[in-house]
Amino acid sequence: MSKLLAVTLLGLSAYAIPVHAQSATYEVEPDHSFVTFEVVHNGTSTTRGRFDTITGTVAFDPVAKKGQAAIQIDPASINTGSKGFDEHLRNQDFFNVAAFPEVTFQSSAFAFEGDKVSSVSGTLTLLGVQKPVVLTANHFNCYTNKRIQKDVCGGDFEATIKRSEWGMNFGLPGIPDTVRMVVQIEAIKQ
Fold first, then answer.
1. Could you read off the pLDDT of 82-117 as tens digits, one per residue?
2. Coil, strand, or helix at residue 171?
3. What's the structural domain count of the chain?
4. Helices (H), 8-163
5. Could you give the CA distance from residue 70 to residue 123 in angstroms, rounded to a whole number?
6. Is residue 169 within 8 Å of 21, Cβ to Cβ?
7. Which domain holds residue 136?
8. Which of 74, 111, 179, 182 is most buried, judging by how many CB atoms fall within 10 Å of its CB?
9. What is the largest CA-CA distance in the chain?
């Protein structure tokens, strides 16, 4: 019913401690990283779901104000809270996970406002189709996680896409074309 994917970097914590970050590679931390989506269901309520399995790496240089993200999402990990609905979303009407077992986001540019990442531009590959997507940062922070003694960066990013641009046309127009994606991601410095 929707589609989403995506991406990009780093986190926010209530116990955030400023980190004087240098150029480094970060690995996506799967317990704090999810891609969620929202779409209106036949003009009634908003249907929400998420992808539970997200992996990838982020190269981040806050001094040079550059970064690269390579994110992989397992569309079979979709979770709406309804087993039957999840199965329908996995079939050829929507994510067609048998033919397309991975969704990817590859960044092309990071934008900054001051020292914080404000957006990440890149290419979303879904159902074998590649299209540009800009993920806007709602939150972004880096901190030292005292429990694991490592630096962590992350945030909440979002974009609104038209699923039909990736060939996901089932149910149009009753199930709207517009899908809101939210990428919650934290990544640990390696």
1. 999 999 999 999 999 999 999 999 999 999 998 889
2. coil
3. 1
4. 83-90
5. 10
6. no
7. 24-189
8. 179
9. 50
